[in-house]
Amino acid sequence: MKFSIKLLALICLGLSREALGASDAIKEFTLDEHTVYTVAVSLDRVTTISFPGPITAIDAAQVTADNKSPASFQIAHSPGTSFLSIRALTHKAASNLNLRWNGKTYVLELVESPPRFIL
After folding, report:
1. Domains of the chain
2. Read out DSSP for 59-77?
3. Beta bridge mates, 64
4. How far apart are CA 60 and CA 96, in angstroms?
5. Per residue in 42-64, is it b (16+ CB within 10 Å) or e — as a string?
6. What is the pLDDT of residues 40-69, one digit of tens each?
C-alpha cells in the first residue's frame, strides 16, 4: 500500500485556492524512504506537513520549538499527532528534518523561499 504526505502552505489572506493557484498551495508526495523531499518554507507563512498516521520521532538541525534557541526554522508538533507546522526564521535558511513514521525514516530538506502567489 502506498502512502503519501501532504504539504500545506497555509495562507491567511482570505484568498481562495483558485486565486492562489491550487497546485502551488498544496503538494502531495508518495512516501519513499529512499527519497529526499525538498520543502520550500516561508519566513511569513506556515507550512504544515501531514503524514497518514502519528509521527513517532523528529530529528533536525537548526530547528527550534521554543523560540529561545537560535535556529533557522521554528517547528510546532504535539506528540502523537500526524502533522507538524514549520516556518523559516532567517533568509536563505536551509536544513534537514528527519521524521519517523510507520517504522521508517523520511528525510525532508527545508529551504527558505518566499511565498508564491498566483493572482
Report:
1. 4-112 (2.60.40)
2. EESSEESSSSS--SEEEE-
3. 74
4. 6
5. beebbbebbbeeebeeeebebbe
6. 999 999 999 999 999 999 999 999 998 788
